């Protein structure tokens, strides 16, 4: 039975091991920060981004996203949304726009709000692919919802993105933009948790000044924006927008040298921080500026740079438009779902095979155990019957020896008296049949042999009395005293006449008594094994069990069970009857 349990447990363990997914390798950052709380990871990610440590930030935000996907704790959802947006921003900065789009869309779906940060980030993707209307639609949706719901930071960020997106007048009319700015100024107050409020105010005032052709006012506000951008998470992009705004303001004012100066400052920031989409923007602005100034050579230089950047970063013929990205995102979701279904199907098939194999093994093991149990029962039955037969044979031998002793006592009363006199003298010579200075005579040998048979019979007589040898602590000294002899003579008789030792004989006789009581259901059937053993002189149940097993080949419970099943006919009194004999 133990084997069966072991095999079942082993099969279950194999199933569990086969169902576990293999973990991939993790870098040092993952091992270090995977158990940190979400707020700490958020703060660390923002700090790494501010230091431009994009690789480390990528690892931190991946930890945050994967933790939510694994645990699905509601309190971690807001951190997972921020992690997805940050991963999208990092992908966008590395020109991986398809991955950025996927992260932003996932963030929007997880957030479930119209003013989600993911929508603002998606507008950058739309702008990059030339879909200005869709970009403005998303930004306007975020702005309206944020103002309505009191999410002032998102409202400020949305307005900044609208003002720095260089949207054409056919996308957003200047009057509509002015209404948007006035609504912002009247509805969005300054708060400590809105670091974008000051920058949004500077850029909105600069835009209003430009609409009114107040170039000095616009320049002043853009320069203030350079200071306000220090509070932003990524100030370099805000600085770029301010420098580009200064360049366009000076261009509108007809001050081309100043315009070129500030636009090149923006170009320097874009190159220094690796913003390819911003480089395309500033190169386009510089090309237009030089063309208006009549410098065809420089206009062609920047137009060529713009085309090179477009070709290296994004090839419209090979990569497609924004709708292709949407299809890519949907296809990616379907592929992931299909992959999950395929894995589940493989796991179900594998589980079915493993369970079937385990079932076959268990069935085969059960059949084997059944056969072994049947064979063991036959073996135990044979052991039981041999034990019963051996006990009856031992009882018959004892009776024969006792009967022979009685016969010898009647025929040779005188000789027996002489032997007893010699035994009482305690001389070793007569015990062993040796005499000092005398040769062995036939009469001396007979006397010694008779004495040994007499002592043997007396030993067997005592060892047939259960009340004597079943006493606890019964020793060979006690046996010698009851036989009227000493330990040395008794030990010699046991070794030479009975070919056994006192301990072996004592254990065999006590086990024989136990066997007789096990089959005597009339007198002992109501007793437990412990109750029967308590009267046999053994020091403990465990000692009795070991001795019983060694002599009979069966445990006490197995022997008793065989007796109850009728393995040996109860009609045979040779084992069941009490053979206790009183001494002479």
Element layout with pairings:
Elements lengths: L1 H18 L8 H6 L4 H13 L3 H18 L5 H17 L3 H15 L5 H12 L3 H18 L2 H12 L10 H14 L9 H15 L3 H14 L6 H18 L3 H18 L2 H17 L3 H18 L2 H4 L2 H90 L1 H13 L2 H5 L9 H21 L3 H4 L6 H8 L3 H10 L5 H18 L1 H4 L4 H5 L7 H12 L3 H9 L8 H4 L8
Helix pairs in contact: 1-18, 3-4, 4-5, 5-6, 5-7, 6-7, 6-18, 7-8, 8-9, 9-11, 10-11, 11-12, 12-13, 13-14, 13-15, 14-15, 15-16, 18-21, 19-21, 21-23, 21-24, 23-24
Note the beta-strand portion. Answer: under 5%
Main sheet properties: none
Radius of gyration: 53 Å
- Secondary-structure element order, as H and E? HHHHHHHHHHHHHHHHHHHHHHHHHHHHHH
Low-confidence stretches: 4-8, 14-26, 315-320, 414-443, 567-584
- Termini separation: 54 Å
| pLDDT averaged residue by residue | 77
Number of strands: 0
Structural class: mainly alpha
Shape: rod-shaped
Task: State the helicity in percent bands.
Answer: over 70%
Total number of helices: 30
Describe the protein in words:
Residues 4-8, 14-26, 315-320, 414-443 and 567-584 have low confidence and may be disordered. By secondary structure, the chain is mostly helical. The protein has helices spanning 2-19, 28-33, 38-50, 54-71, 77-93, 97-111, 117-128, 132-149, 152-163, 174-187, 197-211, 215-228, 235-252, 256-273, 276-292, 296-313, 316-319, 322-411, 413-425, 428-432, 442-462, 466-469, 476-483, 487-496, 502-519, 521-524, 529-533, 541-552, 556-564, 573-576. Helix 18 (322-411) packs across helix 21 (442-462).
């Amino acid at each position: 039975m133990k084997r069966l349990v072991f095999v079942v447990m082993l099969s279950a363990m194999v199933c569990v091991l086969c169902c576990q997914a293999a973990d991939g390798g993790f870098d040092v950052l993952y091992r270090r920060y995977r158990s940190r709380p979400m707020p700490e990871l958020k703060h660390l990610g923002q700090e790494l981004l501010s230091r431009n440590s994009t690789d480390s930030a990528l690892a931190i935000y991946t930890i945050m996203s994967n933790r939510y996907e694994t645990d699905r704790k509601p309190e971690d959802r807001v951190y997972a949304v921020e992690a997805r947006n940050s991963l999208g921003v990092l992908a966008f900065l590395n020109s991986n726009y398809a991955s950025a789009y996927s992260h932003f869309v996932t963030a929007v779906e997880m957030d479930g709000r119209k003013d989600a940060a993911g929508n603002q980030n998606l507008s950058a993707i739309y702008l990059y692919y030339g879909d200005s209307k869709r970009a403005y639609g998303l930004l306007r949706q975020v702005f309206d919802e944020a103002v309505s719901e009191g999410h002032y930071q998102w409202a400020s960020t949305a307005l900044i993105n609208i003002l720095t997106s260089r949207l054409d007048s056919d996308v957003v009319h200047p009057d509509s933009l002015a209404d948007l700015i006035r609504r912002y100024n009247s509805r969005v107050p300054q708060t400590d948790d809105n670091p974008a409020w000051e920058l949004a105010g500077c850029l909105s005032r600069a835009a209003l000044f430009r609409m009114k052709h107040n170039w000095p006012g616009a320049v002043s506000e853009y320069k203030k924006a350079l200071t306000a951008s220090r509070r932003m998470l990524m100030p370099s992009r805000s600085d770029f927008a301010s420098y580009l705004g200064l360049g366009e303001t000076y261009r509108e004012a007809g001050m081309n040298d100043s315009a070129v100066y500030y636009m090149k400052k923006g170009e320097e920031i874009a190159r220094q921080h690796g913003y390819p989409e911003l480089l395309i923007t500033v190169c386009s602005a510089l090309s237009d500026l030089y063309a208006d100034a009549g410098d065809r050579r420089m206009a062609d230089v920047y137009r060529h740079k713009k085309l090179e950047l477009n070709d290296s970063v994004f090839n419209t013929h090979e990569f497609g438009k924004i709708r292709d990205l949407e299809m890519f995102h949907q296809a990616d979701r379907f592929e992931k779902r299909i992959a999950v279904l395929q894995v589940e199907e493989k796991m179900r098939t594998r589980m079915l095979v493993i369970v079937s194999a385990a079932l076959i093994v268990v069935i085969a093991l059960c059949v084997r155990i059944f056969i072994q149990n049947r064979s063991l029962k036959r073996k135990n039955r044979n052991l039981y019957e041999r034990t019963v037969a051996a006990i009856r044979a031992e009882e018959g031998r004892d009776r024969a020896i006792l009967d022979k002793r009685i016969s010898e006592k009647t025929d040779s009363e005188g000789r027996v008296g002489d032997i007893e006199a010699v035994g009482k003298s305690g001389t070793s010579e007569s015990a062993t049949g040796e005499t000092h200075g005398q040769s062995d005579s036939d009469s001396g040998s007979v006397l010694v042999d008779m004495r040994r048979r007499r002592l043997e019979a007396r030993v067997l007589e005592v060892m047939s009395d259960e009340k004597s040898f079943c006493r606890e602590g019964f020793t060979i000294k006690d046996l010698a005293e009851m036989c009227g002899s000493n330990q040395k003579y008794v030990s010699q008789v046991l070794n030479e006449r009975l070919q056994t030792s006192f301990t072996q004989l004592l254990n065999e006789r006590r086990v024989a008594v136990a066997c007789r009581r096990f089959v005597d259901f009339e007198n002992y059937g109501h007793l437990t094994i412990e109750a029967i053993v308590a009267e046999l002189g053994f020091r403990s149940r465990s000692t009795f069990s070991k001795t019983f097993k060694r002599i009979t080949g069966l445990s006490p419970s197995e022997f008793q069970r065989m007796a109850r099943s009728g393995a040996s006919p109860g009609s045979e009194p040779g084992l069941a009857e009490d053979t206790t004999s009183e001494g002479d």
